Amino acid sequence: MSVPAQPPTRSWSPWASRADAAAVLGTARQIADDLSDGLAGTRVRQVARGVRKLLDVEGVALADLSGQPVWSGKAAPVDRVAALMQEVMHTETRAGRSPLLVLPLHVHDELAGVLIIFGAGRASAIREVAEWIVAALERARLEASAEYAAQAELRALRAEISPHFVYNALTVIASLVHSDPERSRELMLDFADYNRYSLASHGEFTTLADEFHAIETYLALQRAVLGDRLRVQIRVAPEVLAVTIPYLVLQPLVENAVRHGIEPRAGDGVVQVRGEAEGNDCVISVEDDGVGMDPAVAEAILAGHGRAGSIGLANVDRRLRNVYGAWYGLVVETAPEAGTRIVVRVPVFQPGVTR
User: Fold this and answer.
1) If 284 and its partner were Cys, which of 70, 200, 307, 344 is the partner (CB 3.0–4.6 Å)?
2) Phi and psi for 283 in degrees, rounded to 5?
3) 81 and 128 fall within a common domain
């Protein structure tokens, strides 16, 4: 007598089959995207819906430290949920048991909120999903911190306008008010334009045309201050003017060429700025025939440990690498009394880099 074979039981697993794995990974990816603004974001309900779909339970809720749960599906009794949440908030450990469970969500060892499960669910699946949520919250917090740091660096860069340069530029402008009022007016407009671009609030990216315009304005002011001591050559191919680049990438390089290359030397000097296309890349170089420096000093500057007033170079190098990858930082060619040449290479087109 044969016994009919029983259908095999299958425990919950995100890799149970290719179709299941694709669905689970798609839902997990969506959960991570929806948590980009944290547990207080506008898409928490979508997260709860995705978790309920993965666990196949009656209801799921998420709450930040304010203690207001956002539900998807059937909500558990309010008084019971409130009591368990208070227990978790005070002990930072899980509370309850099936069919109502409240789990703490620790982000970088700090309690960030809770996950509430209402209905029978497999413990291993619940634990796995809770770990996904924590990982997504940690990534969101790191990305927010990186964005805050980048904005802080830009604010520091804007604040780096040399008081010495501002004083000298305004002094020259004032001296021309009576002897050459038209020239004084032109320089005052240049000064206002320079400050507007350097200090005003901008997005993360701009065009090469805007950066070159800011460079020309700055150099016009410096030529008024330094007179015949400063000569300028700017050559840029028209086809690269529309290339999108991070804001305030080229201007700091030109300012360093004048401040640390030409101004300290005796006699006159030349600053040359060039931009052209090379294959799929745009190559910009800023070169001066000033005092130069030891290559070890340049290396220290790019590492953020160089001389005062050179924070701009480290900032630019770091932002280029963050946006385009490790191969796209600054290249500095220099030697004592041999001038300095800085090369910037960026892709003509980079996905996600838009003005």
Assistant:
1) 344
2) -115, 125
3) yes
Q: Which helix (H) or strand (E) holds 64?
A: strand 59-64
**Same domain, residue pair 264 and 311:** yes
Query: What total of structural domains would you count in the chain?
Result: 2
**Any bridge partners for residue 233, and if so which?**
272
Q: Which domain holds residue 32?
A: 18-151
**Cα–Cα distance for residue pair 244/345, rounded to 1 Å:** 12
Amino acid 338 reads A
- Pair (198, 75) in one structural domain: no
DSSP state of 227: G
Assign residue 135 the CATH number of its domain.
3.30.450.40
> What's the sign of the alpha-carbon dihedral 46, 50, 53, 59?
negative
Residues 195 and 332 in one domain: yes
- Do 194 and 330 lie in a common domain? yes
The 8-class DSSP code of residue 94 comes to -
**Residue tagged 């315009």 (tokens):** 213
DSSP state of 143: H
CA distance 326 to 32: 26
Specify whether 176 is located in the same domain as 293.
yes
**Pairing mode, strands 244-246 and 331-334:** unpaired
Domain membership flag for residue 336: yes
Last residue in a domain, options 97, 123, 151: 151
Residue 196: CB atoms within 10 A of its CB come to: 11
Is residue 354 a part of any domain in this protein? no
pLDDT tens series, the chain, 355 aa: 444 444 434 444 444 455 566 777 788 888 888 888 889 888 999 999 999 998 999 999 999 998 889 999 999 999 999 999 999 989 999 999 889 999 999 998 899 999 999 998 888 889 989 998 999 898 888 777 766 666 666 666 555 556 667 777 888 889 888 888 999 999 999 888 887 877 665 667 889 999 999 889 989 999 998 988 999 999 999 999 999 998 888 888 998 899 889 999 888 999 999 999 999 999 999 999 999 999 988 888 887 776 655 557 888 888 888 888 888 889 999 999 999 999 999 998 877 677 6
